[in-house]
Specification:
The strands form four sheets. The protein has a seven-stranded parallel sheet with strand order 6-5-4-9-12-14-15, sandwiched between helices. Strands 1-3-2 form a three-stranded antiparallel sheet. A three-stranded antiparallel sheet has the order 10-11-13. It folds into two domains: about 40 residues, no CATH class; about 180 residues, Rossmann fold, CATH 3.40.50.1360. By secondary structure, it is α/β, with parallel strands linked by helices. The protein is elongated, with a radius of gyration of 21 Å.
């Protein structure tokens, strides 16, 4: 991978010669890397693909605690009334909420910054999809920046479904970086009801950037694996915590 990175296509013969192995070994290794999404194979060689590597990484995060995320997603979908407008930020648990909405056939409008959520929703006639503009982030399948924030300030929603990198009973809920935190905060400012979706592994944690204080959140949807002590601490802050 170090040899392929940033150097364009390298032939199987060159890789075999530099690594001192048979070309059949190189072909088997390239086949394994292709399955993992790390390279694109071409005739006689391969090149590294950051995009495919990223997609593989996203899939890995999506599969982590997937059953819990699916239960949370179904619980979230039941919060949406027909005709409602819903904000959805990027995130693997939020994606499961989008899937649950379409599975239930809930007629609604979804406004999202997530390219992954948009790619799922666009083919479903029950959902009117609004994909916000903005800069496509280089290491994340979503939109952010001043244009995204400006668009959100012009819109409103009945519910905002937001992912989280961690929820702390004292400090609130966190995003992984400043850009995604700014987008989530704008959604909170323009939604009537704010619901954070987080599997049990996120309860009691903090993250890089706080995007909401406890009193800005109406409900947390999590699962039964959440630490009971952390759940009790959230409820002591008058937070509604529902476990799927």
């Amino acid at each position: 991978m170090e040899m392929l990175s940033g150097k364009g296509n390298i032939s199987t013969a060159v890789l075999a010669r530099r690594l001192g192995v048979h070309s059949m070994t190189i072909r088997r290794d390239l086949a394994a890397l292709e399955i993992a999404g790390a390279v694109i194979r071409g005739y006689g060689g391969a090149l590294a693909s950051e995009r495919i590597t990223f997609e593989f990484d996203f899939d890995e995060r999506h599969r982590r605690n997937l059953a819990a995320k699916q239960r949370i997603g179904r619980l979230a979908a039941r919060r949406v009334r027909p005709g409602a407008t819903v904000f959805m930020d990027t995130g693997t648990t939020t994606l499961e909420a989008a899937k649950a909405l379409t599975a239930a056939g809930v007629a609604c409008r979804v406004i999202t910054t997530s390219l992954v959520i948009a790619s799922h929703l666009w083919a479903h006639s029950s959902v009117e999809l609004l994909l916000l503009g903005g800069r496509v982030r280089p290491r994340s399948p979503d939109l952010a920046g001043p244009l995204t924030e400006f668009a959100l300030d012009s819109l409103s929603a009945d519910i905002a479904f937001l992912g989280s990198e961690g929820i702390d009973a004292r400090r609130g809920t966190f995003a992984g970086d400043l850009e995604s935190a700014r987008v989530a905060h704008r959604m909170i400012q323009n939604a009537r009801r704010v619901i954070v979706l987080a599997d049990g592994s996120k309860i009691g944690l903090t993250g890089a950037v706080r995007y909401a204080a406890i009193d800005e959140i109406d409900e947390v949807l999590t699962d039964s694996s959440a630490d009971p002590t952390c759940v009790r601490a959230l409820r002591k802050q008058h937070m509604t915590v529902t476990q799927a």
